[in-house]
Every structure is written in structure tokens, then in C-alpha cells.
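Milestone M4 deliverable, item 7.
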Amino acid sequence: MRLLVLDESRVLSWVVEHLSPPGVEVEFVESFEEAKRRVSERPPDAAVVSLTPAHLPWKTFQHLCASSVPPVPVLYESCVHKSPSDAGLGPLEGYAEFVPKPTPRGDLQAAIQRLIEASRRMGRGPSL
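Output delivered:
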């Protein structure tokens, strides 16, 4: 299973690697444009996105993931935004989740597990 992590630092990818079950390959990208390119060209099985304070078109990224066949489930996390709508996202519609930072380790690990399960339900990635 390929899990794409978008974060301006490597902290989130390190955390995701350590909280994910064996068999999850974490791919790291630092830029919004690179994440969009990867989702367009070779969609990951799921994605974890750190929502930055920059005014980026997150709804465009959300639509790109949702319109992939099958959809790419996404876990959005942010220390700046208090909700998906605060970040400029639309309704999460069952394929995405939002967690505020800081999130306790156990809660983040549970959210990552739900993301992996959503990916499997949508027909993405092998069973672990």
C-alpha cells in the first residue's frame, strides 16, 4: 500500500511511518504542486496532508482525490485550521477525515488505521 504524505517538513512523514502498520510504503512530498502531480499521474492508495496556513486551493486537491477512480481517501491535519471548512475544503463525504493538531498519538494512529481501511473499502491497495 502506498501512502502519500504532503508536508513542508519531514516530521509528519516520520510520524506516519512509525504509526502505520507493516507493509505501508510512505512517499513524502513537500509541495502542493508535487502532490497534485502524483495524484494525477500515479494515484496513491491514500494520502495524509498537513494543511498549511498558506492560502492554497485545498478544495482543488480534495476534488482531484475524490474524482480519482476509485477515490483516494485523505486524512487532513492542521494546527492552523479548526475545521475542514476553515481550510477551504468542502464536505468530506466519507472518503476524507480531518484532525486538528496536536492530536494525541493514539488518536492519530487510529485515524491512520481508518484511512487505510477506507482505502481497502474503495478497492485501493492490497490487504495488509
